[in-house]
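Late entry, uridine-5'-diphosphate-glucuronic acid complex.
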Amino acid sequence: MSIKKNTGFKICVVGAGHVGLPAAACFAELGHKVICADNDAKKISALKKLKMPFFEPDMEDLVVKNYKKGNLEFLSSLDEAIKRSEVIFIAVGTPPMPDGSADLTAIENVAHAVARNLNGYKLVVEKSTVPVQTGRKIEETIARYKKTDAVCDVASNPEFLREGKAVSDFFYPDRIVIGTSSRRAETILRSIYAKLKARIVVTDINTAELIKHASNSFLAMKISFINAVSRVCDLAGADVKKVAQAMGFDKRISPHFLSAGIGWGGFCFPKDVEAFIYISQKLGYDFNLLKEVRNVNYDQRKYFVNKIKEKLWVLKGKKIAVLGLSFKPDTDDMRFAPSIDIVELLSREGAELFLYDPKPEEAKKIFTAKNIHFSKTAYDAAKGADCVCFLTEWKGLLDIDLAKVRRIVNHPLIADGRNMFNRADIVAKGFEYIALGA
Ligand code: UGA
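Prediction complete; structure with ligand written out below:
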């Protein structure tokens, strides 16, 4: 294979999930010929009809454009996809096991498929978040099961895309990490990303794998830190938003990921923090700091519900509106969303819950108890409510007409799980206000 700068590579992205699908569309947009493969035949046939399996801003446009151009193809046969590709990005799920470790079955399956279909040089690249030393296992598996003497390199190129911002994160990354000991693999990966103006960090595979775990865990720690500070602010009568703002002006701290609230959720932080605790333990280090990061996070949800209980006293029969359910704005992803615990806690107390989210489809599959109802608009949910909770800072909720809400509620109480409003404004509009340290 000749390697030229900006050459269109034949790329296969395995996994059409929240990492794989946006990445496949973006690689195609960079001019590569991309096959996105997934063993979920239903998902693939829907994608061929240009129906997206989940909502991600700007992704659909890129998929449609590149599919029509012939740069992006969808296949349910992994064997065929691998045979036809030079570079295989693994973006399959690594879901958590009950003990916190990552289930690597899907990764191993891809390694076997590569070994079966090694019809020439191939570069296998881990994109999914995987425990350190997984790259080595992939190398060993391919070497053990391959049937030809074709050469295969393995590299780690961890993904730092955020849901809801995946496309812009792809094109404007803070850094691209390439973990490999092969010059050839490094050159190919540099060429694949050549059109992006990004800082590239080259390391060995183990280090690249650890960079991903350390980055996600550090961000989770930052949020848990400010959430712990929010508790002290509540006790001391201080304002955590001002504390965070002033801390963030210090370049060494930075203002990002310092918003206190009901804590982090989603498919990445919860599972990656667990997996990092697990891997560290396995390697011989007890990562107590991360265990506390986790505890602070989950405690924040209970603390929020207790605050509501303190105000409303008996929750049984009270009408509570819950606005914003996804784990963060601009996604319909409900995996490990803080709203799951909060709705569950309120529901168990017998409150009548009226839920609203701009993208409610996933949430509807989760919240099925008799006392949980879905409303078409935020105002429908708030009508007659004794408390209006905000759990996700969707734009449409940030802009909500609070004067209108004040007119339709039964009791004017706002519980702001994301500290998204200003206390003085809310009080001026005639509400009581619950927030977290603000
Ligand atoms: C996270 C990382 O930010 C990405 O870099 C990484 O690629 C991704 O995981 C992954 O491993 O695949 P994501 O899970 O999409 O991305 O979401 P974030 O934007 O990081 O937010 C995570 C959670 O933290 C959300 O529930 C959010 O509401 C919460 N959060 C975030 C706060 O509570 N406070 C903050 O200040 C920031």
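The first strand starts at residue 10 and ends at 14. Will revisit in the morning.
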